[in-house]
């Protein structure tokens, strides 16, 4: 057998495998790139206890940022707050077409204790209710201009609303 030919064939096969793997990896990252980055927005409440009073809805709505990371495990951080409560959340995400699905794994609720909020008569949602709600994944639809992520209208307790974020890559 001609050893030079065998080495050349083996090297060629290895190079071809490397090229195919690189193209497949780039295609995967290209689909992730549409979602990755810094998004500003939050949870927009449309009714509380059946009331669509804008002041009441604003009190429960949140503002903040969503960071979607694509390298090293597709993780995310969601930091949102309203006038009385804050939430620092994290987890993993995946893509299915133009939909990103967030699965929550970390929950932190910085800010005043529930006792303080109750004493002040401020609107709040019990952390136990929030943790239960975040056991379900959140699905965010990417618009055709790649600038907005919008979630389906959802309910937890007597609060109804949806997530919406706008791309703000700095």
Write up what this structure looks like.
With 170 residues, the chain is an alpha+beta fold. Helices cover 31% and strands 39% of the residues. Strands 1-2-3-4-5-6-7-9 form an eight-stranded antiparallel β-barrel.
Descriptive key words:
9 strands, 2 domains, 170 residues, 39% strand, elongated, alpha+beta, Lipocalin
Question: What order do the helices and strands come in, and which of them pair?
Answer:
Elements: H1 3-33, E1 37-48, H2 54-60, E2 63-68, E3 75-81, E4 86-96, E5 99-108, H3 114-120, H4 127-133, E6 138-142, E7 148-151, E8 154-156, E9 159-167
Antiparallel strand pairs: 1-2, 1-9, 2-3, 3-4, 4-5, 5-6, 6-7, 7-9, 8-9
Low-confidence stretches: 11-28
The N- to C-terminal Cα distance equals: 60 Å
CATH class division of the largest domain: Mainly Beta
Report the CATH topology name of the largest domain. Answer: Lipocalin
Helix content: 25-40%
The largest pleated sheet is described as: 8 strands, antiparallel, barrel
Strand order of the largest sheet: 1-2-3-4-5-6-7-9
Beta-strand residue percentage:
35-45%
Number of domains: 2
Rg computed from alpha carbons, rounded to a whole number of angstroms:
22 Å
What structural category arises from helix and sheet content?
alpha+beta
**Architecture per CATH nomenclature, i.e. the level-2 architecture of the largest domain:** Beta Barrel
**Series of H and E elements:** HEHEEEEHHEEEE
Tally of DSSP helical segments: 4
Shape: elongated
How many E strands? 9
Mean pLDDT, all residues: 81
